[in-house]
Predict the structure.
Amino acid sequence: MTYKILIRIILILAFYLLLAPAASAKVPQAVPDFYESLGEGDGEIDTERVIAGLLARVEEEPYNYENYSRLAFVYDHIGDYENLLEAVRLEIAYLPEDAEGKDAYLGNFARALFLNGFWEEGKEWLDKADAINPNNNFNRWNAFKYYARFKKDYRLTARNLKRLNKLLTAPDRDVYYDAYLDVLNAGADPADIISLFRESVRLEPKNYKARRALGAAIRNSSEGHYTDNFPAAMKELKRALRLNPLYIPTYITIANAYMLLALRTNDQKYFGESLAWFDKGLEVDPKNLRLFFSLGYAFYAMKEYDKAIEKLQYAYDNGLQDDEVKRSLAAVYNDKADSIYKVGEGLDKGLELIEKSLALAPGDGVSLGTKAELLYKMGDYPQAHRYIKMASEAAPDNEGVRQSLKMIEDALAAGSFPKD
């Protein structure tokens, strides 16, 4: 049972960069301890009980703004933005005039308004926050969203990105690619995304990060015309590389571009181009873990599972252990085990591999299904049935799981083995 590789490949287009700044509300210092203290024994949070407890606090102290801060934190966590807005509105109503970090509270109110579609009112509050502290990067990020998503004024959007770039100076932070991911995930029109970054390039022609984002925007502007867009995308990406030949994310973006070209044209020569660009990146930084991760994924796309495991495991063992790395390594172990199942030889090795997959992604329906298939092929129908039932519960809509469930239950019905 295999993962849908093209979908997953597309999901990793931005794997080098940190995601855009987390859009969570500012929380008083007491909130995390309070929030954690209400967890159940298994570590899960009973949010209904948390909210009920907080509403009881509000009833006892209706003028205490911190109670509304706590409510906002929980509503934000569960994605209830309508109630988030009401909680933050009351928080602002009772916020002391001399409250510390007032710009953050006002910015949170602006964000809550944006989330509910009240863009102009939100901008008014964002301006009030900006008057208190023009260097609050959280508020600058929300200003970017206002100009990019609502006003579609890309000149002002580019200005905000420039300001953000000056505020967020960590060497591994790329505000421009963060912005690209934000508008892409928000469903912006591809032509609008290109316009946005053309403005950034006009404003900062020597900014290699802006040019990399523009190259990525052009590259992905239309799946149906990927080949047509490829030369223009590469032109911008190579300009970015000339501006800073030491910036590893650009090598990764170019290598990924060739990898996607290979997948979409079914022309294997482009995999060779992809690997060549990874090699160029490794010449610059031979120990870069993101390069190893990306290279591992390229081998995965080529279905060279052993090489993929080698590169991904190296990245993981040396400290690159975020969720995407875990999911990717689990997927490769699963697909390698699935290939063994299909051949029907070395089934014990297949079980070893699938255990590694499940250790990285416990409860994953696809990997549980592969384990069931391996056990089925080994003749252990009761255990196979046990795991395929677990897979069915974890991934009820997976067609492969449904087919394997029928196969295993048919085998059980034909034999003398009891179902678990």
User: Anything to note?
Assistant: DSSP finds 22 helices and no strands in the chain. Residues 5-43 have pLDDT under 50 and may be disordered. The first helix runs from residue 5 to 11.
